[in-house]
Amino acid sequence: MELREGSVLAFHTDGLLASRERDLDASQRMLREALSAPSDSLDEICDRVLHALLPPSGSADDVALLLARTRGLPSSQVATWDIPADPALVAPIRKQVVDQLDRWQLTDATFTAELVVSELVTNAIRYGAQPIRLRLIHDASTLICEVSDTNHTAPHLRRAKTWDEGGRGLLLVAQLTQRWGSRHTTEGKTIWAELALLDEL
């Protein structure tokens, strides 16, 4: 699903709409009205939704509400490469990543990003299907490394035995990054890993 820049997504439990005073259609209408009023603050929108739908005494059911706003990044913060299925090209790809991080002035992330990119690209070449694409995305606090291919098989984390020659790639990625995961697309899958650029306080 493609969303416009600035779209607000609302995820909620059924407890938000359940009420003895009104039917479900009325609750959904009230939710749409509360969400549609313009605001720059997601906290403000949450407060408006909760005040509109919940009685002052509280809800008889558990209520959870999560809001997210879509936000695009300028193309200057995204770098993309198409990757040939040749293991000999992993080293030149690492060099391109290092050069890109240098241009972005993110040299502190170079060592970890090199390792993560190397593992994800190598796995895509070995187990994925063409075309393979590497994408780096950064904002002020994170660097995301994504590798996409057209194989629909999801990766799985496994613990290699002492004498195994492989099987440590995703474990290494999981240990070096603050989080990682995969998402399926209509064309295949994308494996992503997120590196923190700011020291945690």
TrEMBL record:
Q: Name one GO molecular function term.
A: protein serine/threonine kinase activity
Q: Which residues form the PPM-type phosphatase domain?
A: 2-70
This protein's superkingdom? Bacteria
| All residue ranges annotated as the Histidine kinase/HSP90-like ATPase domain in the record | 83-193
What's in the keyword line of the UniProt record? Answer: Kinase, Serine/threonine-protein kinase, Transferase
Q: Where, by residue number, does the polypeptide cross the bilayer?
A: none
Task: Quote the PANTHER family the UniProt record gives.
Answer: ANTI-SIGMA-F FACTOR RSBW, ANTI-SIGMA-F FACTOR RSBW-RELATED
Its recorded name reads: PPM-type phosphatase domain-containing protein
